[in-house]
Structures are given as C-alpha cells and as structure tokens.
From TrEMBL:
GO terms for cellular component: plasma membrane. It is a multi-pass membrane protein. Pfam families: MFS_1, Sugar_tr. The chain crosses the membrane at residues 33-52, 64-81, 93-112, 193-212, 245-268, 280-299, 311-329, 335-353, 374-398, 404-423. PANTHER family: SHIKIMATE TRANSPORTER. This is MFS transporter. It is found in: Cell membrane. It comes from Rothia aerolata. Signal peptide: none annotated.
Length: 442
C-alpha cells in the first residue's frame, strides 16, 4: 500500500460499547444525583431550620424551597455553557467536569457554618454551593444520555439510555436512605452534626465515579460528526435551526413537577403542616424509587416496541392525576394510603415518563447539536418545574401549610402542558440513528 493510499483513509472510528456506556452513565448519574438529591431531602427536614431559623415554620420552609429552586433557575445558563462543550470537546469531557463540580459543591455544604455560627454569610454560602450544583447538573444528564444513545444499538436505544435515569433514580433513593438513620437521631445531634454526614460522603462519590468514567470512549457517531466541518457553533446552530425542538423538550420536561412536588413539597407538607413523623415520610420515596428502579427500564423497553409517545404521555397523565389522592391521603394522615398511592404515582406512573424521556428528547436532535439542544430544553423545563413547583405548591398550601387541593391542581395543570407538547413530537423509535440525523437535520 502506497503512502498516498494511506493518506486517503478515514480515521478509524471507535467501536460501540452499549453495555459499558450504559453502566458508566448509570453509576455516574447515580452518584452525582445522590449529591443533588441529598440537598432536597435536607432542605425539607433540616436546612429550613438551621439556615432560616428566625422565620415561622411555613416561611422557613418557603425560603428553603427557594434555595432548592435556585439550582434549577441557573440550569439553563449552565446548559448554554455545558451543552456546546459536550458537542465540541466530547461527551466524556463534560461528564468528568460536572462530576468534580457537583462533588466539590456538595462536600462544601457539609462544611458550611450555620446561620447561628456565621449569620447571613452561612446562608449566602449555601446558595452559592447550590448554584454550582445547578450548573453541574445542567450538563450531566444531556452528556450521559447522548453518550449512551450514540453507543446503543438502534433497536434498543430506549432501553440503553434509560439506565441514565435509572441511575438518577438510584441516586435519589440513596440520598433519602442515607438520611433515614440521621433523621432518627435526637434533634440536637441531627441539627449539630448529623445533617453534615450525607454531604461529606460526596468525597466517596467523586472518586468512585471518576474511576469508572475515565475508561469510557467517545461514541462513534460523535467522533464521525466532529470530523465534518460545522457551519456554526453548536449553540448558534441550535438556536438557528432547532429552536422548536428546544421549546418542545422544555415543555415536556415540566413533567418533573410531579417529582418536585412529591420529593420536596409533600415531605414538608406532611412533616411541618400535618405533623407526620419525618422517619415515616422518608420511607415513601425509598419505596417509590425502589419500584422505579424496576419500572424505568421496563417502560423504556416497551417504548422500543410500541413507541416513545404513547408510554410518555400515559405516564404524564396518570402521574398528574394521582397527585390528588396522594396529597389527600397526607391531609387525612392515612399512612397506608400515603404509601400505596405515593409508590404507585411516583414509582409507577411517573417512571413511565421518566424512563422514556432520555431517548424521546435526545432523538429530537441530530448528533452535532444533541447535547446542546437537549441540555437547553431539559434545563429550561427543569428550571420552571424545579424552581417554581416547590415554591408554588408551598404558597398554595397556605400560611399554616395544611392545604392540599391547590398544589394538586397546580401539578395536574403542569402535566396537561406536558401532554400537549408531547403530542406535537415526531415518533422516532423505529428510525436508525443515521435516519434521525437526516430527518432532524436542518
């Protein structure tokens, strides 16, 4: 073979590694979203008292929910930074960057001085750490999902990408489970040192995820795409040619309202408003997330067979409607009903939508702007639902935090928006990744 012949050969592309990509996405997302979710649990149980101690119970909870929401508000700005980085420098680059950002911010929260120790400075530092968490989360899921989607075989993209969300589900489960023994501590010990331990454990999280993710290669589709000259930067390309898809994903992503009301507002409503033991309420998300671990990949596999839209839409409708009986059971202090309805709503119905959206959203964009488009869309939707939902639900519950109907109506209305947006999407489950690039290309 002559040197001239060699020079015309295309660079060899890496091989697809569906199982390795799925596992790396799962474990990384699980560990990183442990960091993110542990804050939400702490905000509902502890942070409202130690960082906003001079307020009434309802006002302290409301300010704590605002601190939860700030991480969601900054996520669209993070998406404009992290998304283009993922499309230009690689999915793996962003996955490693966000890992250290999230882990560092979470570890720092465990070291913060409280309001009693440092006054308003402690509260300001808490919000700064939460902002860093939000910026990190804005790139994590979009990069992990793109990585697993582009490594996947065409017939199983829904199933392969669902492991990223199954990982976040496990991370949320782990965050809640870790808090259970500390929530059982005497009040003085919980408020002085017990709440810090789950945050400090993020050091283990960072090391574990790093060791797993460092060996993962970029997917072939991305490697091939960056060899082609781009007409514009990923961010400009997305805004110029894929704005309708970004808006559609943003609207669909507001299905996260169900999750936010369930994991943050309902916990405060039950413990602060209705006086239900916090240890009992912590077991509800543990049980629901356990069911979700099974339901997410099963529903994703179903979407590979019958399509993304029917499974996603059914999940949004059923989860939104189930918020009425769930909050009513809390209002009635019906412990059995709380567990039955809560686990079915969140672990079953919400998981139908939660397991489908990674492939559903990712397939709305071509490879060259997939991380940017998906990050922007999801983070705008998460900003609205995550930033507004806990605050709106808390405000609608009234000054004494005992109203249930208003928060339930709000959740159902948000899910109606989700359904309308999903109905406008193209069904892509039966298309190959190459065909998706062609049909979604401008």
């Amino acid at each position: 073979m002559t040197p001239q012949a060699v020079s015309h050969q295309s660079p060899q592309l890496p091989q697809k590694s569906p199982k390795r990509a799925a596992f790396a996405s799962w474990i990384g997302s699980a560990l990183e979203y442990y960091d993110f979710a542990v804050y939400g649990t702490a905000a509902a149980l502890v942070l409202n008292q130690i960082f906003f101690p001079e307020d009434s119970a309802a006002m302290g909870t409301l300010k704590s929910m605002l601190a939860v929401g700030v991480a969601y508000v900054v996520r669209p700005f993070g998406a404009m930074l992290m998304g283009p980085l993922g499309d230009r420098f690689g999915r793996k680059f962003v996955l490693m960057l966000t890992l250290f950002m999230m882990g560092g911010a979470t570890f720092a929260i465990g070291l913060l001085p409280t309001y009693e120790q440092a006054g308003v400075l402690g509260t300001i530092l808490l919000v700064i750490c939460r902002v860093i968490q939000g910026l990190s989360a804005s790139g994590e899921q979009a990069s992990a999902i793109s990585m697993s989607l582009e490594h996947s075989e065409d017939r199983s993209r829904g199933f392969t990408t669902s492991w990223t969300l199954q990982g976040t589900q496990f991370g949320s489960l782990l965050a809640t489970a870790v808090f259970i023994p500390f929530a059982a501590l005497p009040e003085e010990q919980l408020m002085s040192w017990g709440w810090r331990v789950p945050f400090l454990l993020s050091a283990v999280v960072v090391v574990t995820a790093y060791l797993i993710r460092r060996r993962l290669e970029e997917p072939p589709a991305f490697t091939e795409a960056i060899q082609v000259q781009k007409r514009a930067t990923p961010l400009r390309d997305t805004f110029m040619h894929h704005t309708p898809a970004v808006v559609r994903v943003a609207a669909c992503a507001m299905v996260n309202t169900v999750n936010m009301v369930f994991t943050t507002f309902a916990l405060s409503y039950a413990t602060t408003g209705m006086g239900i033991d916090r240890g009992i309420m912590l077991w509800v998300p543990v049980a629901s997330n356990t069911l979700g671990l099974l339901a997410i990949p099963l529903m994703a596999r179903l979407s590979d067979r019958i399509g993304r839209k029917p499974v996603f839409i059914a999940g949004a409708v059923l989860a939104g409607a189930s918020m009425f009986p769930y909050l009513f059971m809390i209002h009635e202090q019906n412990i059995v009903g709380i567990f039955v309805v809560g686990v079915l709503m969140h672990g079953g119905f919400y998981s139908m939508a939660n397991g489908i959206w990674p492939s559903f959203y990712a397939e709305m964009f071509p490879t060259r702007v997939r991380v940017t488009g998906m990050a922007l869309g999801t983070q705008i939707g998460f900003a609205v639902s995550g930033g507004v939902a806990p605050v709106a639900a808390t405000a609608l519950a009234g000054d004494d935090l005992t109203g249930w109907f208003g928060p339930a109506v709000f959740t159902a209305a948000m899910c109606l928006v989700v359904v309308i947006a999903a109905l406008t999407a193209r069904e892509t489950s039966q298309l190959s990744l190459a065909e998706i690039d062609r049909v979604q290309q401008s």
